[in-house]
């Protein structure tokens, strides 16, 4: 099975409006609730792709109960979340259907106690014994120390489990030094880590900091990967309009599937790029449009990129 860790889970709420206008009232055309947080989205996509997946992290209060209720019927997905006293946060995505874009509002999350962190670490160590790979995803909630991902990477490495890291800021800086197998930043996160806005230079710099491989999301321009097999760029034929929330999580899902299946890097990047675009075409994060995925897979172009 594949294990995903979401320390800062969320109940995701999505509103669709014909146009998002500042300082105006809006009539919501459609709304949806989904279990959220980056690792939860990754797990839902993996389960839809046919991979047995286990979700762990924290959930608490009425929003946590609702999150777990929504996870329960997902085929192939097992809930191994650790209960907290504090309520799980909410996120709100407002999708402007006219512009084909979304505006995101993310609550910070409630504090995790020392006892809850200890309980999580014990659960995590247990779950690693049956894992083919693990993804550590998203922000850290209050109460969890900034080196938490570095600690969890070292635990996974000691257990012989490949680990992917998808976070930002100081948790990324410390985590990459613990030598994860794969890191998946976006361009802004990469610039914050390396100080460079040149994605080619920054992606290679990030790999030199400790990661075995680095795959950078370039938004509509696709993916850039620095790997032991070379530097690759994967690009879709054209931008896909819709809700980009969760597109990066689908990249993580595809990369994890490729890691577990040991597929060649060009094939991993093709699948990740197409799946990301198919997620933009879906109405909410954690889902993808299967027809868009099928249409795009033969159209993704993967080329060898020159070093920056």
Description:
Strand 7 (about 90-95) and strand 8 form a beta hairpin. The chain is α/β, with parallel strands linked by helices and about 300 residues long. Helix 1 crosses helix 8. Helices cover about 35% and strands about 25% of the residues. The mean pLDDT is about 90. It is built from ten helices and 15 strands. Strands 1, 4, 5, 6, 9, 10, 11, 12, 13, 14 and 15 form an eleven-stranded mixed β-sheet that branches. It is globular.
* Shape assignment: globular
Instruction: Report the structural category.
Output: alpha/beta
- Largest sheet report: 11 strands, mixed
Order of secondary-structure elements: EEEHEHEEEEHEHEHEHHEEEHHHE
- Helix percent reads 25-40%
Low-confidence runs: none
Q: Helical segment tally?
A: 10
Using the CA coordinates, give the radius of gyration.
18 Å
Q: Whole-Å distance between the termini?
A: 37 Å
Q: What fraction of residues sit in β-strands?
A: 25-35%
Oligomer: single chain
Number of DSSP E strands: 15
Could you tell me the mean pLDDT? 92
Blueprint of the fold:
Elements: E1 2-6, E2 10-17, E3 30-36, H1 38-48, E4 53-60, H2 61-71, E5 77-79, E6 82-84, E7 89-96, E8 101-106, H3 114-128, E9 133-137, H4 148-158, E10 163-166, H5 169-177, E11 182-183, H6 187-194, H7 199-208, E12 213-217, E13 223-227, E14 230-235, H8 247-261, H9 265-280, H10 290-296, E15 301-304
Parallel strand pairs: 1-4, 1-9, 2-7, 4-5, 4-6, 9-10, 10-11, 11-12
Antiparallel strand pairs: 2-3, 7-8, 12-13, 13-14, 14-15
Helix pairs in contact: 1-8, 4-5, 6-7, 8-9, 9-10
